[in-house]
Every structure is written in C-alpha cells, then in structure tokens.
Amino acid sequence: MATTFACMVDGQPVPHEQSFEVKNPATGESLGFAPISTPEQVERAVSSARAAQPAWAAKSDEERKAILMKVAKVLTENTDYLAKWITKEQGKPLAGPGSMFEMQACVGWTQVPASLDLPTEVVFEDESRRDELHRRPIGVIGAIAPWNWPLMIAIWQIIPSLRTGNTVVLKPSEYTSIGTLEMVRLINTVLPPGVLNTISGDGKVGDILVRHQDVDKIMFTGSASTAKKIIEASGGNMARLTLECGGNDPAIVLPGTEMASKAGDLFWGSFINMGQTCACAKRLYVHEDDYDQVVSSLSAVADQMPMGNGMEENILLGPVQNEMQYNKVISLVDDAKARGAKIIRGGSKAEGQGYFYPITLVGEIDNGIPLVDEEQFGPVLPIIKYKDLDEAVRKANDTKTGLGASVWSDDLEQASQVASRIESGTVWINQHGAIHPMVPFGGMKESGYGVEFGLEGLKAVTLPQVISIKKFAPAEA
Predict the structure, then answer these.
(1) What's residue 476's pLDDT?
(2) Which residue among the candidates 7, 106, 245, 278 is catalytic per the annotation?
C-alpha cells in the first residue's frame, strides 16, 4: 500500500482524511500521497506557531544558534535519503548540480545564518542622548516554497526566520510535497514543539495561510501572478512580505569575448535544473560577429550532457518537473518555430515516458517573440544577435522582471560598466546564478519585494526597534 505522508504540527504528525497522489516526473510511477490540510488544520498549525513563539524568542542567540547547528547535523546525516526524494519527486539527477548539490546547499544555508549575529547598533549618540537600533522577531512566518528547488528554498525561508526568534508554518508546493514534509519531520527531532509546522495542499490551502490574522510575515517564491494575489490578501492582516517572483534573466556576451573556456559556466548558468531556476540565464545576447563561435561552444557542451532518470548513474539532466510546465515549454518553442525562428539543436519533445525535453538552442529570434519576452522556465535558450552594446543593454532591460543578469567578457572593467546599466537585483560577470549564503539576493520590477541571505536576509525577518535614551545631566557639585 502506498504511504500517505504527514504534516507536522506542534512537533507531532497530523492525521489527514484527504490526500493527493505524487508521481515521479521521469517515470510516471506513484511515489505516495501527500495530505490536504483542512482549514481547521491550518488554524491549528498557526496557533501552534503562535503559542511556541514567545519561548523560542526568549532563548538567547547562542541557544538558537546551537539548535540550528543541530538542524544542520540532521540534514547532513540524512542527505542521501532526502536527495533521493528530491530526485524522485522533482526530477533533478542525484549527480552534478542536482539533488546532492541541493542538499549540500541546505546544510550551508543552515550553518551560515546560524553563525551570524545582528548586534545592537548605536545609530546616534551625543552628550544628551543615545539611540540604539535593536532587532526583534516579527512573530509567525507563513512560508510558501516552490517546486523547482523544494528543500533548498524552504531552508532559505525557515532558517533565517528561526535564527531571529520567529516561528514558521511552511506549505510546500503541491508538486513536490513529500521530500519537504520528510525534511521538516526530521528537523523537528531537534526543535522545540511548534517552532516549525507544516501544512499541505494546493493554492486554496496557501490562501488560508496568507490571510490568517496571526501570520505576521509571508515569504513566497513563485510566480508573479500568485505573488500579486498574496499582496492583495495581506491587506487584511498587514503581514510583511518577502516575494521572489522569478525573472527573465538576460546574459550579454561582449564583442570579441573568448567563450570556449566560459561555455561550461554559461551552459550551467542557463540549464541548471533544466532551466527551472528563477535566476537562470533565459535570453542570450551575442554580437553578430561572435554568434557562430558562441553557438558552437554552447552546442559542444550540451552534446556532453546525458539526460534521463536521475536515479541512474552518470545522468546530469532530468525531466521538466510537471506537465503544465512541460506543455508551456513545448508551446513557446512551437510558437517560435511558426514565427520563423531557427532551431539550432533540440526543439522536439522526446519519445517515451516522462517529461523529457532536450536542451534546445534557438536562433534567428528577437525581442517581441514570446520565447524571448516570457520566462520559459525550461531547457530552452533563445540566442539574439546585436550590432552594438547600446542595443544589447536596451533589449536586456526590455522586460517586466529584474532578478538576475550576466555580462561575459575578457575585459572586467568594461563588463562592470555594462553591468551597472542593467536593471536587475544581481548582475554576475563571467558567471550566472552564482548565489552565496552571505550575499543578499533579491529582484527589481516584478521580480519581487525584499532580499534574502546574509545579514540583510536576517534583517528582513526582524522588526527594527529604536530605544532612545535621554542621558542624565551631571549633578552640580
């Protein structure tokens, strides 16, 4: 009999009457069932987090740090188990920048926030007064994680929140629920009851969470359309927001750049997790004189990347995670073909079971075509020729989003000058998507609100409180 996995509330598994089936996107096999939380169960999860928060916040920084280091140890000890769940449920291979890589990131993004401090800042002082800026926990964090990096992004939401004295109610994506629920079950073996709780289900369950009057902040990674609904919903409870809503990241190769040695980095910057990453390069702008050599270099790398069931050895690329996204990729490529674009490689869905789509490079294409203008979120890269850098920068900025971008060049000074003209939260030079747990990450435009990671990420899950002290005048002798 297939297993039905459980949510955790107040440190205990919660029985559920309703559930939904989760399938492997590479094989179609059933992996088990994830629960559908009722409104009453969402209420219980939030109430549990609310009840646990004062005692958790009252612990010293050193106590919370020590507990989170125990969380990192649990993640380390269960890396193989959880990585296999990621591969079976999400599709990314165990090898390469896949599920084992995601689990290593989970450990790192736990250890780093656990090691950071937010000391009291003296923002002003003179002979008459002293003004101190303190950081206080917000309260209960409602976190909604996505399906592309299900455990890693959940950790990004959970650990900074716990580090600063908040408690959390987490809803994983309905596409990738089991691995996240299992991770939280394991983490709960070292956390006090109620500090980290889970609910499960589709957007209706998430809507109950974000509207709850006892949720003080919402952290969400996903589509801009869903984020806009969350913004509206938060008007009822005045919840703070951190929203990371994806991007249509441009990459610009400057004229004359030697790309053979950089093609591997550009490939993974575009196709890590089959392009299903918010900060993947999704549009490539190449000078017309360099087009052939860039295309040749990328194609040569793509030819060396085996695709298949990620549970098998030596596989580096997996399937698209779900049917909806798979069909969107097919539709965008077919539309580009109909508009006269040239398929350089790939461009047709694979035969057989699973949501497999080949690495696809598309040329003879420009801004104004949906494959360029929309975030494809799949293993397809449109390559656009340009005549001069002003044109490249203008086209790179011609988007509603602004999460990441990259500039590729042998001249770092020129690359930095071009980078400063691009409208995105992060611009990488000779790399793409190279996030780091100490470096703030967030977007401009419709890519969302706020930042994560590092000290700025910790600040984002706190409330500033000023304590202003009037000094005593010295008594006269």
Answers:
(1) 67
(2) 278
Query: Is there a catalytic annotation at residue 244?
Result: yes
Please, what is the Cα angle at 123 between 119 and 127, to 5 degrees? 120
Q: Are strands 249-253 and 451-452 parallel, antiparallel or unpaired?
A: unpaired
What sign for the dihedral angle of Cα 123, 127, 129, 135? positive
Q: What is the pLDDT of residue 202?
A: 96
Q: Is the pTM of this model over 0.85?
A: yes
Domains of the chain: 7-245+447-466 (3.40.605.10), 249-429 (3.40.309.10)
The residue with tokens 């094989």 is: 27
Among the listed residues 89, 102, 244, 446, the single catalytic one is 244
Predicted confidence at residue 424, as pLDDT, reads: 98
DSSP state at residue 28: -
Which structure tokens are listed for 180?
């996240």
The mean pLDDT of 11-33, rounded to a whole number, is 96
Mean pLDDT of all residues in 345-354: 92
Q: Which residue has the tokens 């969400």?
A: 220
Residues, the chain, total?
477
Per-residue pLDDT tens digits for 206-216? 999 999 999 99
CA distance 444 to 94: 33
Question: Distance between CA atoms of 333 and 271, rounded to whole angstroms?
Answer: 16
Q: How far apart are CA 123 and CA 146, in angstroms?
A: 38
Which H or E element spans position 470?
strand 462-470
| Amino acid 475: pLDDT | 66
